[in-house]
Amino acid sequence: MSSFSAELPGDLWRNWIIHSTALLNSYRDRTGRELIERGGDSKLDAERLLGAPFVVVSHGVEADPILNYGNRVALALWEMSAAELIRTPSRLTAEPMLREARERLLAQTTREGFVSGYEGVRISAKGRRFHISNATIWNITDGAGKPAGQAATFARWTFL
Hints:
Blueprint: H1 10-31, H2 42-50, E1 55-59, E2 67-70, H3 72-77, H4 82-85, H5 99-112, E3 114-123, E4 129-141, E5 147-154, E6 156-159
Antiparallel strand pairs: 1-2, 1-5, 3-4, 4-5, 4-6
Helix pairs in contact: 1-2
């Protein structure tokens, strides 16, 4: 068991592994590329994604979507624990005046399957602002092919 899995109850850690698989499969299905090198073991792939040197974050399909995944880099950037992350509405990752533009981007992603090259400003749980660049946002589907939310990945950001 990883040190991260110790932060999450057993059921939540199992769900995290299942969701990691959905993230990876959906990214591959939408973009034609792999997000990380995969080894075929879902637990090990979840650990690789968790430890990737770039941000991976996602939210669910609720009317006001709640964050449901953040790898270690995302948790550090947004300055929150996994337990805090999974209670946070994803709209709170953007400042109020930027939320409308964020909503338009998510609607575009819903229509097109994925969007690459996105740039924007986000805000951490502690109010620290940062500019992200060259982000890819994609639609997530679960193992049955049902919509499961949207995710984003990026490797470049600058604190403002």
